Amino acid sequence: MANAQDPEAQSEEIVVFELSGQHYGLRSSVVREILMAFSPVLLPQAPPTVDGILNVRGETIVLLNLRKRFGLLDKPLAASDHFIIAWEGRRLVALRVDRVLNLRRVPIRSLVDAQRFLSQPELICGVAIIDDKMVVIHDLERFLSLADHELLAKALANQHREPHQ
User: Fold this and answer.
1) What are the angstrom distances between the C-alpha of 146 and each of 28, 124, 126, 128?
2) In this structure, is residue 111 part of a structural domain?
3) Mind listing the pLDDT tens digit for each residue in 64-99?
4) Is residue 108 assigned to a domain?
5) CB neighbours (10 Å) of residue 22?
6) Strand 59-64 relative to strand 50-56: parallel, antiparallel, unpaired?
7) In the chain, how many domains are there?
8) % of the chain beyond a pLDDT of 70
9) How open is the CA angle 165-38-124, to the nearest 5 degrees?
10) Shortest CA distance to 149 belongs to which of 81, 42, 64, 85?
11) Within 10 Å of residue 40's Cβ, how many Cβ atoms?
């Protein structure tokens, strides 16, 4: 039985990944799996932060573009890229990242409020220092705006109505 003083009881597991040379993280509790990247299917009329959809073992999963959301330069999909399949609220989504680095346990007391460092703190749930690197921990539930959710729902509905060729 863990007590309140136990460091394991007061920490979070974070999946740490790299994107354009910067380190980011997601709470492991929202991550389902990590896959090597493969080509998505384009999704017409989707929000600009959506790169398409993926078929993962028969399941349709939306591929989100972190670079566009964070204002980073886009780059073509590479065979070395990874997809992080994670829960964004009620929906599974995929995030294309340069590479997944590791799974780390971070003491909750070491997490710093993102508002102190970032111009878009609403996308972030905290900042941690891991191995002397600043890791921005992303809040996936806030990735898409309400307008993006509506556009995505319409694009997915249209995708299911169109005959496949």
Assistant:
1) 25, 17, 22, 28
2) yes
3) 988 988 888 999 999 999 999 999 888 899 999 999
4) yes
5) 14
6) antiparallel
7) 1
8) 82
9) 115
10) 64
11) 19
- Domain containing 117 equals 11-161
Q: Is residue 84 part of a domain?
A: yes
Q: With left for phi above 0 and alpha for psi between -120 and 50, is residue 83 left, alpha or beta?
A: beta
Map tokens 């573009």 to a residue: 65
Q: What does the alpha-carbon distance between residue 55 and residue 46 come to, in Å, rounded to a whole number?
A: 17
CATH number at residue 33: 2.40.50.180
Instruction: Look at the block and give the residue holding tokens 């710093």.
Output: 112
Instruction: Examine the pLDDT at 4 and tell me if it is beyond 70.
Output: no
**Comparing C-alpha atoms, which of 35, 10, 5, 30 is closest to residue 106?**
10
Query: Is residue 32, in this structure, part of any structural domain at all?
Result: yes
